[in-house]
Amino acid sequence: MTYIWKARFEANERAITAALNASQFGNLFANAFKNPSFVLPLPKDGDGYEMHFVQWSFVGPHTTHCMLTSLAEYKLHKEYAKPHTTLMFHQELLGDSGVVLMNGQLEQDVPLSVEEALLLVLNVQRFYGAMTASLSAERKLELLRAFTQGDSAFSMDKLIEEAASLD
């Protein structure tokens, strides 16, 4: 099933696809529901970071969206900001097969490469899908919570450190 899903989008070089098992999606969904927005850093030409705003939308009983927008775009246009990357999680098969299919799209006219979009999506997975079995995962979840609560414990330096780490 995963192979067929990925093959469906293979011709689109700006498509992003994945298949998540029930445990992976359950963790991601629970954290997204509790923390519906966040920021993620994207390294730029070895010269600092560009921040991106993550927003989750629970549009129906079997569909969840994750939208990524540059923070500059979001600050300028607020809820009317155009996301550069949109991910859709399709939960229709979760009950029968224990699988959630994800497809996403990097928009055409954005100053972002597919590789940069994939790095952001990887960090969405690392922060929102973090399992609490490791210290690294716990640090990521704590950053999510601190951002959501407007807590002074949220640190941009710690965020960059966790996003850049290999664990």
From TrEMBL:
Q: Which GO terms describe its biological process?
A: mitochondrial proton-transporting ATP synthase complex assembly
Provide the organism lineage as a comma list. Eukaryota, Fungi, Dikarya, Ascomycota, Saccharomycotina
* Gene Ontology cellular component terms for the protein in this record: mitochondrion
The superkingdom of the source organism is Eukaryota
Q: Which family does it belong to?
A: Belongs to the ATP11 family.
Q: What is this protein called?
A: Uncharacterized protein
What keywords would UniProt list here? Mitochondrion, Transit peptide
Entries under Pfam families matching the protein: ATP11
Organism expressing this protein natively: Metschnikowia pulcherrima
Q: Where in the cell is it found?
A: Mitochondrion
